[in-house]
Design brief:
The structure holds 2 protein chains of 2 kinds. Chain A is an alpha/beta fold. Chain A has 19 helices and 8 strands. Chain A has helices at 3-9, 16-32, 34-37, 54-59, 67-76, 80-89, 98-108, 133-145, 163-184, 190-213, 223-228, 231-235, 240-258, 282-290, 314-323, 331-344, 359-362, 365-376, 395-411; strands spanning 45-48, 63-65, 123-127, 149-152, 269-274, 294-299, 349-355, 380-385. In chain A, the strands form 2 sheets. In chain A, strands 2-1-3-4 form a 4-stranded parallel β-sheet, sandwiched between helices. In chain A, helix 8 links the parallel strand 3 (123-127) and strand 4. Chain B has helices at 4-18, 25-31, 47-52, 78-94, 109-122, 140-159, 165-187, 194-203, 209-224, 248-255, 282-292, 305-317, 331-346, 363-377, and strands at residues 36-40, 55-59, 101-105, 126-129, 235-241, 258-265, 321-327, 351-356. In chain B, helix 10 links the parallel strand 5 and strand 6 (258-265). The chains are: A alpha/beta, B alpha/beta. At the A-B interface, helix 8, helix 9, helix 17 and helix 18 of A face helix 5, helix 6 and helix 13 of B.
Chain lengths: 412, 383
């Protein structure tokens, strides 16, 4: 690990990052050359939303790629804004989700698109458990590519998951399976699905454990680590590769815990993050905090993939798990989740990214902030920006708010 | 041509009815002393449930201008912000009971969030109905029935009175009467000023339904006596969009020489389209109608469904142009505008995508409307 890297990030880099690059690099390489190997192996490529029960697709030997993950890649590579402009010139307004605009822009601007863009889909698969935007985004993709669109409709959970919610999702799973049998020409194999679910389960448990290790004082990780190392659990969920990856990652984090190594040396403040990362400013943004010895020890976003897989028969388990995802839940649920995390991780304050591109996450944040602060007495601040489109980021405004928030913490 | 005197006479007769358009909800309380108000927001809220609860369903239309409540960020549409403004004002003045019961139908991400904020800060007596997003999904009808039963139980609980199937059947009859009347009104769009018809359609979501039925039963036959009405030489347009909280766009179009012959907005005919079957189990009947009616962009019946529906409407009403009126920050309609505009262009139909901050077109929007209408006027087939 070089001191230069640490200076640039403002905190301790991870060795596992090398493995992350090779793992995700391989995934995108396979995606890029899918046109050469996909057909001989009868492996269809699907564009899939991050909350889709991908295990069912994998059971049909489908190769899934994730436009949302790709949006994060575009953001980190700082090409999103140009790709967004390309989508805007085709009529998609600037107020629409920047992942979606980046993705649509990357279809025509292969020259700008990281890894040459995503491979042309054979079909697309969407689950609305994360937002309503994905439905509209994927409808557009289905029109652009003239490919089938498979939808899993998970009703918004106002209170608690009920029998009719699960039954409805289950009915759709059964229909999806029959459609996939026709589309892929493969028979559904329950044993294979169970095997894939067990990989998902193992990855999720490892991810949960890694997150839990950050309860240690000082925290072995700072939240940008979690954002980056989230990629395999999104894109490779349900594979042995993801399990192996997270075993390596856990090993390094455990070593840090054992040796009392802090991600942010001299950790003084422990913070919680709410919402998707600001990808194009990932390190520059968090450096404003590390400079003040503040470490983000937990977040709600990467917790989206730390969901418990419910027990029961495989399809029922998937139906319940994917319906209960936190973004599909009430304000009360989300506030309580943050209240609990604050207690478990001994958090001193929380920062909410008011993300113009993600309305279901962001529009209730002020209400969540009010409830959380009322219950815990812990201060929180909202920072307005965008996850991928840098035009929505005002450097001075953000810096001023961060400074004011940190001064509040110092007084407390 | 219909004379101003004749229009004034019609206005006199509809005067009381149209007074329900007044945006002050104090008025609602004044007008309807004996009924519990049941505020609702989205066109997918099944008003039969409100009626069966013995309440007065009225749709919350904001003032349609800009307002910035502290609970919502700047990048939120004025529809949600405006509703919250009304909610805050009324709850400050009258406490939580100001809105009686409130019913949300889950639709876009913004309304999902508004329903949560509303429940937490404005009205604890808020019920959320979550219809399917994919209306063509396997199991959608069964799910909707189960969800409707849950909602009815919740409303019964809040009302302190059980809503029976018989109550729902009676409510269906009332709602269907209104729908039939509005369907007849729809056919009159070419003959009467756009704002006039639009206001009579909108007030059907605000006025006590029995009163609406009584008044419209009386005046509709006269409105339908169109033998003596000369057709005006107006440019026939279809407008599509989310909610129009007032008739300012319709009125401006009239001023500029156009007539709205079809109104595909969430507050327009889509709310009334299709009847609820009267001899079926009421839950199944309501569910069937919600699935059958023309869908809004938040719901899915197939990627070409909305474009096909609107193309058909264009043909039926002989529209010469289409205006897609987008509300700033309204994602579902903004997404659809791209494919719809392409479709209409393919049909050789002039189309204008007009983004507006609120419900009232400003100077710049007026100029764009004017230029658009002039371009239609100048087309060879319109000379």
């Amino acid at each position: 690990m070089s001191k230069n890297k640490q200076a640039a990030k403002g905190y301790l880099p991870l060795d596992t990052t090398k493995k992350l690059k090779s793992t995700m690099g391989k995934h995108y390489l396979l995606a890029r050359y899918h046109k050469y190997w996909g057909r001989p192996l009868n492996k269809k490529v699907a564009w899939v939303t991050s909350g889709f029960p991908v295990e069912i697709l994998r059971a049909f030997n489908v190769f899934p790629v994730y436009p949302e993950n790709y949006g994060a890649v575009c953001g980190t590579a700082r090409v999103s804004t140009e790709l967004c402009k390309e989508a805007e010139s085709a009529g998609y307004l600037q107020d629409l989700c920047s992942y979606a605009r980046s993705n649509i822009g990357s279809i025509t601007r292969k020259d700008l698109a990281p890894a040459g863009g995503l491979p042309k889909p054979d079909f697309i698969a969407i689950c609305n458990n994360i937002c309503g935007t994905v439905l509209k985004w994927y409808e557009s993709l289905a029109r652009i590519y003239n490919v089938p669109m498979f939808i899993i409709d998970t009703p918004f959970i106002v209170d608690r998951v009920e029998e009719h919610h699960v039954q409805y999702v289950l009915d759709q799973f059964k229909n999806l399976i029959s459609e996939l049998e026709q589309f892929t020409g493969r028979q559904f194999d329950l044993a294979k699905l169970e095997r894939i679910i067990s990989y998902s389960d193992e990855s999720i448990k490892l991810w949960q454990e890694i997150r839990s290790l950050c309860k240690t004082k000082p925290s072995p990780l700072n939240i940008p680590d979690m954002f980056l190392h989230l990629a395999p659990i999104v894109s490779l969920r349900g594979t042995a590769e993801a399990v192996n990856y997270y075993k390596t990652f856990r090993g390094e984090v455990l070593t840090r815990v054992k040796n009392g190594v802090a991600a942010v040396p001299g950790e003084k403040y422990r913070l919680l993050w709410d919402n998707i990362a600001i990808w194009y400013k990932l390190f520059a943004f968090f450096k404003m905090f590390t400079e003040r010895k503040a470490s983000f020890v937990v977040d709600t976003y990467s917790g989206g993939w730390a969901m418990d897989l419910y027990l029961g028969n495989p399809l029922e388990s998937l139906a319940e798990t994917y319906t209960a995802i936190f973004l599909n839940r009430s304000v009360e649920f989300r506030a309580q989740q943050i209240v609990e995390l604050i207690g478990e991780y001994q958090v001193d304050g929380f920062v909410m990214h008011s993300n113009r591109s993600c309305k279901p996450y962001s529009l209730v944040q002020e209400e969540v902030r009010r409830i959380v602060t009322k219950q815990t007495g812990i201060p929180g601040v909202l920072i307005e920006a965008d996850m991928a489109d840098s035009r929505a980021y005002s450097e001075e405004q953000v810096r001023t708010r961060v400074q004011a928030f940190m001064e509040t913490l110092e007084i407390i | 041509m219909i004379t101003q005197t004749a229009l004034n006479r019609l206005h006199d007769e509809t005067d009381h009815l149209l007074s329900y358009l007044d945006l002050s909800y104090d008025n609602q309380k004044t007008f309807i002393k004996e009924l519990l108000p049941f505020s609702f927001f989205c066109s997918y809220w099944p008003e039969e449930i409100s009626l069966a609860a013995g309440a007065h369903p009225f749709r919350v239309f904001s003032r349609g201008n800009t307002y910035s409540p502290s609970s919502l960020p700047a990048y939120c549409c004025t529809v949600a912000k405006g509703c919250l403004e009304l909610g805050e004002k009324l709850s400050a003045a009258k406490g939580e009971q100001g809105f009686g019961l409130s019913g949300f139908a889950h639709s876009c991400d913004t309304m999902q969030c508004l329903s949560q904020i509303w429940l937490n800060t404005i009205n604890k007596n808020t019920v959320t109905f979550v219809p399917p997003i994919n209306l063509a999904a396997s199991g959608a009808a069964d799910y909707t029935v189960a969800e409707l039963k849950k909602v009815v139980n919740k409303v019964s609980e809040l009302r302190g009175k059980e809503i029976t199937e018989e109550d729902l059947r009676k409510a269906i009859l009332t709602s269907n009467k209104v729908r039939r009347l509005v369907s007849r009104l729809e056919k009159l769009r070419p003959y009467y000023p756009s704002g006039f018809i639009a206001s009579l359609v909108r007030v059907a979501q605000l006025a006590p339904r029995p009163e609406y039925i009584k008044t419209m039963d009386k005046i509709l036959p006269r409105l339908e006596d169109i033998q003596n009405i000369a057709r005006e030489n107006k440019i026939r347009v279809l407008i599509s969009g989310a909610v129009f909280e007032n008739e300012d766009l319709h009125n401006q179009l009239e001023e500029l020489g156009a007539r709205v012959v079809a109104d595909d907005s969430c507050s327009g005919y889509r709310y009334f389209a299709e009847l609820t079957e009267e001899d079926l189990n009421p839950f199944e009947a309501i569910a069937n109608r919600l699935i059958k009616r023309p869908n809004c962009p938040c719901r899915h019946k197939g990627v070409a469904e909305r474009a096909n529906y609107l193309s058909q409407l264009v043909e039926e009403r002989k529209a010469q142009g289409v205006i897609i009126a987008l509300r700033k920050f309204c994602e579902p309609h903004a997404w659809d505008s791209v494919s719809l505009a392409e479709k209409f262009k393919e049909m050789g139909l002039p189309v204008l995508v007009l983004e507006m901050e609120g419900a009232t077109p400003g100077g710049q929007e007026r100029t764009r409307l004017q230029a658009f209408l002039e371009s239609i006027e100048g087309r060879p087939d319109n000379e």
